[in-house]
C-alpha cells in the first residue's frame, strides 16, 4: 500500500504558539485531507484539499496541497488548549491494480498544548 | 441528524474467542468502511462495504470478515482472536464511499487478554 510519512510524531507547545506539521508520500494523491482525533473519539475532518497548490483555511487552521501532489502541510495559529489531540493527514488514492479509491493515513501528530 | 454509531464501545475478550462489532451509518449513507487503529501501525484499512457488497479490502488475514445489511448497517467479525488484535476499531460511513466524505464513529475498543 501507499505510505504517508507524517512529522513530527509529537509536539509540546505553549498556548498561543503556532504549530506546523506535514505529510509526504512517494505516491501522488489527488486529494489530501486533515483529520483531528480527540481521546476516545473517531477522527473528525478539518480540511479537505482537492487541487495541487491549493491553500485552504478553516478558522485558525490553514492547509496546503503541495505542487508535486506528494505532500501537504497543516498550520495551526495561536494554539489553545482545546487544540490538544492527534492530527492525521490522509491521501485519497488506489492500491496498485485497483480502480477503487480509499484513504491512506499518516501515523499522526500528537499535539499537547500547555496553558 | 444522528452520527455514526458503533457498538459496543468497549469489549474484553480472551485469546481464541471470536467477536462481532456493529456499525450503524448515518441515514442515507450506503458505504461503510472499517479501520483498525493501533499505536504501532496507525489507521489500517480493513474493508469497505457498499450496498451489501464488499467492494474493497485491505491486507488483513481471513480471520477478519464483515458484512452489510440492506439497511446499510454493517458488522465486522474477528475469529480466533490474538493478543495483537487489541485495537480501536473505527467505522466510517459515506454516501458513495471510496474515501470520499467519510464520517467516523467513536470506535469500539477491543482488548484481547
Radius of gyration of chain B: 13 Å
Instruction: Give me the number of helical elements of chain A.
Output: 0
Give the overall form of chain A. Answer: globular
Strand content of chain A: over 45%
Q: How many β-strands of chain B, per DSSP?
A: 11
Helical content class of chain A: under 10%
The unreliable regions of chain A are none
Query: What shape does the CA trace of chain B take?
Result: globular
First-last Cα distance of chain A: 40 Å
**What is the residue-mean pLDDT of chain B, rounded to a whole number?**
94
- Please report the distance between the alpha carbons of the first and last residues of chain B: 37 Å
Instruction: List SSEs of chain A in N-to-C order.
Output: EEEEEEEEEEE
Please compute the radius of gyration of chain A using only Cα atoms.
14 Å
Number of E strands of chain A: 11
Helix- and strand-based class of chain A? Answer: mainly beta
Class by SSE composition of chain B: mainly beta
What does this structure look like?
- The complex is a heterodimer of chains A (115) and B (113).
- Chain A is mainly β and 115 residues long.
- Chain A has strands at residues 4-7, 10-14, 19-25, 31-37, 44-49, 55-58, 61-65, 71-76, 85-94, 101-105, 109-114.
- In chain A, the strands form two sheets. In chain A, strands 2, 4, 5, 9, 10 and 11 form a six-stranded mixed β-sheet that branches. In chain A, strands 1-3-8-7-6 form a five-stranded antiparallel β-sheet, with no helix packed on it.
- In chain A, a hairpin with a 6-residue loop joins strand 4 (31-37) and strand 5.
- Chain B is 0% helix and 53% strand.
- Chain B is globular, with a radius of gyration of 13 Å.
- In chain B, strands 2, 4, 5, 6, 9, 10 and 11 form a seven-stranded mixed β-sheet that branches. A four-stranded antiparallel β-sheet of chain B has the order 1-3-8-7, with no helix packed on it.
- By secondary structure, chain B is mainly β.
- Chain B contains no helices and eleven strands.
- Chain B starts with a strand and ends with a strand.
- At the A-B interface, strand 9 and strand 10 of A face strand 5 and strand 10 of B.
